[in-house]
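Appendix C: a fully annotated inverse folding record. The material below is reproduced so that readers can follow the format used throughout the book. The structure is listed first as C-alpha coordinates, followed by the designed sequence.
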Protein backbone atom coordinates (compact mmCIF):
# COMPACT_ATOMS: atom_id res chain seq x y z
CA UNK A 1 0.00 0.00 0.00
CA UNK A 2 1.58 3.33 -1.03
CA UNK A 3 2.17 5.96 1.60
CA UNK A 4 -0.86 8.23 1.43
CA UNK A 5 0.34 10.70 3.99
CA UNK A 6 1.80 12.91 1.25
CA UNK A 7 -1.56 12.86 -0.52
CA UNK A 8 -3.87 14.38 2.02
CA UNK A 9 -7.30 15.32 0.76
CA UNK A 10 -8.79 18.43 2.29
CA UNK A 11 -11.81 20.64 2.03
CA UNK A 12 -12.22 23.99 3.70
CA UNK A 13 -13.89 27.30 2.90
CA UNK A 14 -16.48 29.43 4.61
CA UNK A 15 -20.16 28.56 4.67
CA UNK A 16 -20.97 31.85 3.02
CA UNK A 17 -18.85 31.18 -0.04
CA UNK A 18 -20.09 27.61 -0.24
CA UNK A 19 -23.68 28.76 -0.11
CA UNK A 20 -23.09 31.37 -2.79
CA UNK A 21 -21.46 28.80 -5.06
CA UNK A 22 -24.29 26.33 -4.52
CA UNK A 23 -26.89 28.96 -5.38
CA UNK A 24 -24.87 29.96 -8.46
CA UNK A 25 -24.76 26.35 -9.63
CA UNK A 26 -28.45 25.67 -9.12
CA UNK A 27 -29.52 28.84 -10.91
CA UNK A 28 -27.15 28.64 -13.84
CA UNK A 29 -27.04 25.02 -14.90
CA UNK A 30 -29.67 22.45 -15.84
CA UNK A 31 -29.42 18.71 -15.21
CA UNK A 32 -31.39 15.85 -16.79
CA UNK A 33 -33.32 14.92 -13.65
CA UNK A 34 -37.02 14.09 -13.91
CA UNK A 35 -39.47 15.07 -11.16
CA UNK A 36 -40.43 12.17 -8.95
CA UNK A 37 -37.39 10.01 -9.70
CA UNK A 38 -35.96 7.96 -6.86
CA UNK A 39 -32.37 6.81 -6.72
CA UNK A 40 -31.71 3.07 -6.49
CA UNK A 41 -28.54 2.76 -4.42
CA UNK A 42 -25.58 0.86 -5.82
CA UNK A 43 -24.78 -2.41 -4.11
CA UNK A 44 -21.03 -1.78 -4.44
CA UNK A 45 -20.34 1.23 -2.26
CA UNK A 46 -16.80 2.59 -1.78
CA UNK A 47 -14.74 0.81 0.85
CA UNK A 48 -14.31 2.32 4.29
CA UNK A 49 -12.12 5.39 4.15
CA UNK A 50 -8.58 4.29 5.03
CA UNK A 51 -7.52 7.89 5.66
CA UNK A 52 -10.49 9.74 7.24
CA UNK A 53 -8.37 12.73 8.26
CA UNK A 54 -6.80 13.27 4.87
CA UNK A 55 -9.64 12.23 2.55
CA UNK A 56 -12.76 14.35 2.72
CA UNK A 57 -15.77 15.32 0.59
CA UNK A 58 -15.41 12.96 -2.32
CA UNK A 59 -18.13 13.11 -4.94
CA UNK A 60 -20.99 10.77 -4.02
CA UNK A 61 -22.07 9.56 -7.44
CA UNK A 62 -25.68 8.85 -6.45
CA UNK A 63 -25.97 12.51 -5.35
CA UNK A 64 -24.85 13.91 -8.71
CA UNK A 65 -27.61 16.36 -9.59
CA UNK A 66 -25.90 19.35 -11.21
CA UNK A 67 -23.53 19.97 -14.09
CA UNK A 68 -21.50 22.33 -11.90
CA UNK A 69 -20.11 20.95 -8.63
CA UNK A 70 -20.77 23.38 -5.74
CA UNK A 71 -17.66 24.64 -3.97
CA UNK A 72 -18.57 22.97 -0.68
CA UNK A 73 -18.79 19.59 -2.43
CA UNK A 74 -15.58 19.88 -4.45
CA UNK A 75 -12.71 17.56 -3.58
CA UNK A 76 -9.31 18.96 -2.70
CA UNK A 77 -5.86 17.45 -2.30
CA UNK A 78 -2.84 18.63 -0.34
CA UNK A 79 0.43 16.77 -0.65
CA UNK A 80 2.28 18.63 2.09
CA UNK A 81 0.89 21.15 4.58
CA UNK A 82 -2.27 23.19 4.18
CA UNK A 83 -1.11 26.80 3.96
CA UNK A 84 -3.17 29.65 5.34
CA UNK A 85 -2.44 32.68 3.17
CA UNK A 86 -3.20 36.36 3.75
CA UNK A 87 -3.92 37.96 0.40
CA UNK A 88 -2.71 41.32 1.75
CA UNK A 89 0.86 40.01 2.06
CA UNK A 90 0.78 37.37 -0.68
CA UNK A 91 2.46 38.01 -4.03
CA UNK A 92 3.50 36.10 -7.15
CA UNK A 93 6.92 36.14 -8.82
CA UNK A 94 7.58 35.16 -12.45
CA UNK A 95 11.28 34.72 -13.16
CA UNK A 96 14.03 32.38 -14.27
CA UNK A 97 15.04 32.45 -17.93
CA UNK A 98 13.29 35.73 -18.74
CA UNK A 99 14.48 39.22 -19.67
CA UNK A 100 12.09 41.14 -17.41
CA UNK A 101 11.26 39.29 -14.19
CA UNK A 102 7.83 40.15 -12.80
CA UNK A 103 8.16 40.42 -9.04
CA UNK A 104 5.74 40.92 -6.17
CA UNK A 105 2.59 40.79 -8.31
CA UNK A 106 -0.32 41.39 -5.95
CA UNK A 107 -3.71 39.73 -6.24
CA UNK A 108 -5.19 43.14 -7.05
CA UNK A 109 -2.74 43.52 -9.94
CA UNK A 110 -3.61 40.09 -11.32
CA UNK A 111 -7.32 40.88 -11.10
CA UNK A 112 -6.71 44.04 -13.14
CA UNK A 113 -5.52 41.90 -16.06
CA UNK A 114 -7.94 40.66 -18.75
CA UNK A 115 -10.43 38.22 -17.28
CA UNK A 116 -11.33 34.84 -18.75
CA UNK A 117 -13.57 31.98 -17.63
CA UNK A 118 -13.35 28.28 -18.40
CA UNK A 119 -15.55 25.38 -17.29
CA UNK A 120 -13.25 22.46 -16.60
CA UNK A 121 -13.74 19.05 -15.01
CA UNK A 122 -10.80 18.34 -12.70
CA UNK A 123 -10.05 14.72 -11.84
CA UNK A 124 -7.32 13.34 -9.62
CA UNK A 125 -5.29 10.84 -11.62
CA UNK A 126 -5.66 8.40 -8.72
CA UNK A 127 -9.46 8.47 -8.88
CA UNK A 128 -10.78 4.87 -9.00
CA UNK A 129 -7.26 3.72 -8.17
CA UNK A 130 -8.29 2.62 -4.67
CA UNK A 131 -11.49 0.90 -3.46
CA UNK A 132 -12.11 3.86 -1.15
CA UNK A 133 -11.27 6.62 -3.60
CA UNK A 134 -13.88 6.90 -6.36
CA UNK A 135 -15.03 10.53 -6.03
CA UNK A 136 -11.92 12.59 -6.77
CA UNK A 137 -13.58 14.64 -9.48
CA UNK A 138 -15.61 17.84 -9.89
CA UNK A 139 -16.70 20.32 -12.54
CA UNK A 140 -16.43 24.07 -11.92
CA UNK A 141 -16.43 27.42 -13.66
CA UNK A 142 -12.96 28.87 -13.06
CA UNK A 143 -12.10 32.53 -13.62
CA UNK A 144 -8.80 34.36 -13.75
CA UNK A 145 -6.36 35.89 -16.18
CA UNK A 146 -4.60 33.95 -18.98
CA UNK A 147 -1.06 32.87 -18.12
CA UNK A 148 0.48 33.31 -21.59
CA UNK A 149 0.40 37.15 -21.75
CA UNK A 150 2.25 37.41 -18.44
CA UNK A 151 4.92 35.00 -19.65
CA UNK A 152 5.22 37.07 -22.82
CA UNK A 153 5.48 40.24 -20.76
CA UNK A 154 8.33 38.67 -18.78
CA UNK A 155 10.18 37.98 -22.02
CA UNK A 156 11.08 34.30 -22.14
CA UNK A 157 14.65 33.80 -23.37
CA UNK A 158 15.39 31.59 -26.36
CA UNK A 159 16.73 28.81 -24.14
CA UNK A 160 13.61 28.73 -21.94
CA UNK A 161 11.94 25.36 -22.51
CA UNK A 162 10.22 24.45 -19.24
CA UNK A 163 7.87 26.33 -16.88
CA UNK A 164 7.75 25.31 -13.21
CA UNK A 165 4.85 26.22 -10.92
CA UNK A 166 5.66 26.33 -7.20
CA UNK A 167 2.99 26.25 -4.51
CA UNK A 168 3.23 27.67 -1.01
CA UNK A 169 2.66 24.20 0.48
CA UNK A 170 5.86 22.41 1.47
CA UNK A 171 7.18 19.46 3.42
CA UNK A 172 10.10 17.17 4.02
CA UNK A 173 11.14 14.96 1.12
CA UNK A 174 13.59 12.06 1.43
CA UNK A 175 15.49 10.79 -1.59
CA UNK A 176 18.51 8.49 -1.33
CA UNK A 177 18.71 9.21 2.40
CA UNK A 178 18.89 12.95 1.70
CA UNK A 179 16.30 14.93 3.65
CA UNK A 180 15.19 18.22 2.12
CA UNK A 181 12.42 20.78 2.48
CA UNK A 182 10.60 21.20 -0.82
CA UNK A 183 7.65 23.23 -1.97
CA UNK A 184 5.04 21.48 -4.07
CA UNK A 185 6.09 21.94 -7.69
CA UNK A 186 4.98 20.70 -11.08
CA UNK A 187 6.15 21.69 -14.54
CA UNK A 188 5.15 21.60 -18.19
CA UNK A 189 6.86 22.54 -21.41
CA UNK A 190 6.86 26.17 -22.50
CA UNK A 191 4.65 25.24 -25.44
CA UNK A 192 2.08 23.67 -23.12
CA UNK A 193 2.29 26.56 -20.65
CA UNK A 194 1.51 29.05 -23.42
CA UNK A 195 -1.85 27.42 -24.16
CA UNK A 196 -4.39 30.28 -24.13
CA UNK A 197 -6.79 28.23 -21.99
CA UNK A 198 -4.39 28.14 -19.02
CA UNK A 199 -5.46 30.52 -16.27
CA UNK A 200 -3.99 32.11 -13.18
CA UNK A 201 -7.25 31.47 -11.38
CA UNK A 202 -8.65 33.42 -8.42
CA UNK A 203 -12.36 32.56 -8.66
CA UNK A 204 -14.40 29.36 -8.53
CA UNK A 205 -18.10 29.23 -9.40
CA UNK A 206 -18.55 32.96 -8.95
CA UNK A 207 -16.79 33.16 -5.57
CA UNK A 208 -13.16 33.67 -4.48
CA UNK A 209 -11.19 30.43 -4.45
CA UNK A 210 -11.84 28.52 -1.23
CA UNK A 211 -8.69 27.95 0.86
CA UNK A 212 -8.85 24.22 0.14
CA UNK A 213 -8.87 24.82 -3.59
CA UNK A 214 -5.87 27.12 -3.79
CA UNK A 215 -6.70 30.57 -2.40
CA UNK A 216 -5.62 33.15 -3.36
CA UNK A 217 -4.30 31.93 -6.76
CA UNK A 218 -3.89 28.63 -8.54
CA UNK A 219 -3.10 27.32 -11.97
CA UNK A 220 -5.96 25.95 -14.01
CA UNK A 221 -4.68 23.88 -16.94
CA UNK A 222 -7.70 22.46 -18.80
CA UNK A 223 -7.11 19.00 -20.19
CA UNK A 224 -4.60 18.00 -17.49
CA UNK A 225 -5.03 15.81 -14.44
CA UNK A 226 -5.50 17.59 -11.12
CA UNK A 227 -1.85 17.20 -10.09
CA UNK A 228 -0.81 19.68 -12.79
CA UNK A 229 -3.27 22.34 -11.59
CA UNK A 230 -0.99 23.74 -8.89
CA UNK A 231 -2.73 25.39 -5.92
CA UNK A 232 -1.53 28.20 -3.63
CA UNK A 233 0.78 29.56 -6.33
CA UNK A 234 3.77 31.60 -5.17
CA UNK A 235 6.42 31.38 -7.94
CA UNK A 236 6.54 30.63 -11.66
CA UNK A 237 10.01 29.87 -13.00
CA UNK A 238 11.13 29.43 -16.60
CA UNK A 239 14.01 26.95 -16.92
CA UNK A 240 16.40 25.88 -19.66
CA UNK A 241 16.15 22.16 -18.85
CA UNK A 242 13.56 19.60 -17.78
CA UNK A 243 12.45 19.84 -14.15
CA UNK A 244 12.53 16.56 -12.22
CA UNK A 245 11.39 16.38 -8.60
CA UNK A 246 9.27 14.20 -6.32
CA UNK A 247 6.00 14.94 -8.10
CA UNK A 248 7.40 14.87 -11.64
CA UNK A 249 9.88 11.99 -11.64
CA UNK A 250 9.35 9.76 -8.59
CA UNK A 251 5.71 10.10 -7.53
CA UNK A 252 2.82 10.44 -9.98
CA UNK A 253 4.70 8.14 -12.33
CA UNK A 254 2.77 5.43 -14.16
CA UNK A 255 4.56 2.08 -14.55
CA UNK A 256 3.40 -0.24 -17.30
CA UNK A 257 4.47 -3.42 -19.07
CA UNK A 258 4.41 -3.08 -22.84
CA UNK A 259 4.87 -5.82 -25.42
CA UNK A 260 7.30 -5.00 -28.21
CA UNK A 261 8.26 -7.64 -30.76
CA UNK A 262 7.42 -10.38 -28.32
CA UNK A 263 9.41 -8.90 -25.47
CA UNK A 264 8.21 -7.17 -22.32
CA UNK A 265 9.41 -3.60 -21.91
CA UNK A 266 8.76 -1.71 -18.66
CA UNK A 267 7.90 1.97 -19.08
CA UNK A 268 7.67 4.84 -16.60
CA UNK A 269 5.80 7.99 -17.60
CA UNK A 270 4.98 11.13 -15.65
CA UNK A 271 1.25 11.75 -15.19
CA UNK A 272 0.14 14.67 -17.33
CA UNK A 273 -2.85 15.05 -19.61
CA UNK A 274 -6.25 13.64 -18.73
CA UNK A 275 -7.36 10.37 -20.32
CA UNK A 276 -10.79 9.50 -21.64
CA UNK A 277 -13.15 8.17 -19.00
CA UNK A 278 -16.78 7.73 -18.00
CA UNK A 279 -18.68 6.32 -15.04
CA UNK A 280 -22.27 5.38 -14.26
CA UNK A 281 -23.46 7.80 -11.59
CA UNK A 282 -26.82 6.42 -10.55
CA UNK A 283 -29.88 4.38 -11.45
CA UNK A 284 -33.21 6.11 -10.96
CA UNK A 285 -36.76 4.79 -10.80
CA UNK A 286 -40.05 6.53 -11.48
CA UNK A 287 -42.92 4.08 -11.14
CA UNK A 288 -41.89 1.13 -13.28
CA UNK A 289 -39.51 3.20 -15.43
CA UNK A 290 -35.75 3.06 -14.82
CA UNK A 291 -32.90 5.24 -16.09
CA UNK A 292 -29.14 5.08 -15.89
CA UNK A 293 -27.34 8.44 -15.58
CA UNK A 294 -23.61 9.08 -15.73
CA UNK A 295 -20.82 11.37 -16.85
CA UNK A 296 -17.96 11.25 -19.39
CA UNK A 297 -14.86 13.44 -19.48
CA UNK A 298 -11.12 13.70 -20.11
CA UNK A 299 -11.20 14.43 -23.86
CA UNK A 300 -13.87 15.77 -26.23
CA UNK A 301 -16.60 13.11 -26.10
CA UNK A 302 -18.38 11.79 -29.19
CA UNK A 303 -20.58 9.11 -27.61
CA UNK A 304 -21.08 6.98 -24.52
CA UNK A 305 -22.12 3.33 -24.61
CA UNK A 306 -23.70 1.40 -21.77
CA UNK A 307 -23.71 -2.36 -21.22
CA UNK A 308 -26.07 -4.12 -18.81
CA UNK A 309 -24.80 -7.48 -17.58
CA UNK A 310 -23.35 -9.32 -20.58
CA UNK A 311 -25.64 -7.65 -23.08
CA UNK A 312 -24.67 -5.52 -26.09
CA UNK A 313 -23.35 -1.98 -25.91
CA UNK A 314 -26.16 0.55 -26.28
CA UNK A 315 -25.62 4.23 -27.07
CA UNK A 316 -26.69 6.61 -24.31
CA UNK A 317 -28.23 10.03 -24.86
CA UNK A 318 -25.83 12.89 -24.15
CA UNK A 319 -27.36 15.94 -22.51
CA UNK A 320 -26.49 19.07 -24.52
CA UNK A 321 -28.27 21.62 -22.34
CA UNK A 322 -24.93 22.60 -20.77
CA UNK A 323 -21.65 22.11 -22.59
CA UNK A 324 -18.07 23.37 -22.57
CA UNK A 325 -14.94 22.14 -24.31
CA UNK A 326 -13.23 20.93 -21.12
CA UNK A 327 -16.26 19.93 -19.06
CA UNK A 328 -17.79 16.54 -18.50
CA UNK A 329 -20.86 15.48 -20.45
CA UNK A 330 -23.87 14.08 -18.63
CA UNK A 331 -25.51 11.10 -20.29
CA UNK A 332 -28.55 8.92 -19.65
CA UNK A 333 -30.12 5.71 -20.92
CA UNK A 334 -33.67 4.50 -20.44
CA UNK A 335 -33.58 0.99 -18.95
CA UNK A 336 -36.74 -0.67 -20.15
CA UNK A 337 -38.33 -3.53 -18.21
CA UNK A 338 -35.32 -4.65 -16.15
CA UNK A 339 -35.75 -8.09 -14.65
CA UNK A 340 -35.76 -8.39 -10.86
CA UNK A 341 -32.46 -9.30 -9.29
CA UNK A 342 -28.86 -8.12 -9.36
CA UNK A 343 -27.41 -6.48 -12.47
CA UNK A 344 -24.13 -4.91 -13.54
CA UNK A 345 -23.92 -1.57 -15.36
CA UNK A 346 -20.78 -0.62 -17.33
CA UNK A 347 -20.08 2.48 -19.41
CA UNK A 348 -17.44 3.34 -21.98
CA UNK A 349 -16.72 6.73 -23.54
CA UNK A 350 -15.61 7.27 -27.11
CA UNK A 351 -13.76 10.43 -28.09
CA UNK A 352 -14.10 12.60 -31.15
CA UNK A 353 -10.68 11.36 -32.33
CA UNK A 354 -11.58 7.71 -31.95
CA UNK A 355 -10.25 7.18 -28.40
CA UNK A 356 -12.07 4.38 -26.57
CA UNK A 357 -12.12 4.04 -22.80
CA UNK A 358 -10.27 0.76 -22.17
CA UNK A 359 -11.80 -2.28 -20.54
CA UNK A 360 -10.27 -3.49 -17.29
CA UNK A 361 -8.61 -6.41 -19.13
CA UNK A 362 -7.12 -4.13 -21.78
CA UNK A 363 -3.29 -4.21 -21.53
CA UNK A 364 -3.31 -0.45 -20.90
CA UNK A 365 -5.04 -1.17 -17.59
CA UNK A 366 -4.24 -4.81 -16.85
CA UNK A 367 -0.49 -4.27 -17.27
CA UNK A 368 -0.43 -1.00 -15.34
CA UNK A 369 1.26 -1.47 -11.97
CA UNK A 370 0.41 1.86 -10.34
CA UNK A 371 -2.92 3.43 -9.45
CA UNK A 372 -2.41 6.64 -11.43
CA UNK A 373 -4.34 7.20 -14.68
CA UNK A 374 -7.02 4.70 -13.68
CA UNK A 375 -9.35 5.25 -16.62
CA UNK A 376 -10.58 1.71 -17.15
CA UNK A 377 -14.28 1.07 -17.68
CA UNK A 378 -16.25 1.43 -14.46
CA UNK A 379 -18.79 -1.29 -13.57
CA UNK A 380 -21.40 -0.83 -10.84
CA UNK A 381 -23.82 -3.34 -9.32
CA UNK A 382 -27.50 -2.68 -8.63
CA UNK A 383 -30.48 -4.72 -7.46
CA UNK A 384 -33.89 -4.35 -9.10
CA UNK A 385 -36.85 -5.44 -6.98
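Designed amino acids, in order:
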Amino acid sequence: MPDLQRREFIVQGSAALAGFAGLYASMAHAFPTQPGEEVVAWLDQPAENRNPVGIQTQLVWEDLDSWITPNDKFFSISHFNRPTIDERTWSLDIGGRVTKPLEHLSLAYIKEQPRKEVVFTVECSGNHGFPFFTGGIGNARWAGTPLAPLLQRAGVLDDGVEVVFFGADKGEVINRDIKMQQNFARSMSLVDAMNPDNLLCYEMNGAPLPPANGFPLRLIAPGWYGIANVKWLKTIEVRDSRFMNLLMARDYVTIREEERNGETVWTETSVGRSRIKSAPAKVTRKGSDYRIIGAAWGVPIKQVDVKIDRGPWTSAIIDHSEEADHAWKIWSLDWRDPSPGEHTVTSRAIGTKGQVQPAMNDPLIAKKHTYWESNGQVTRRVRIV
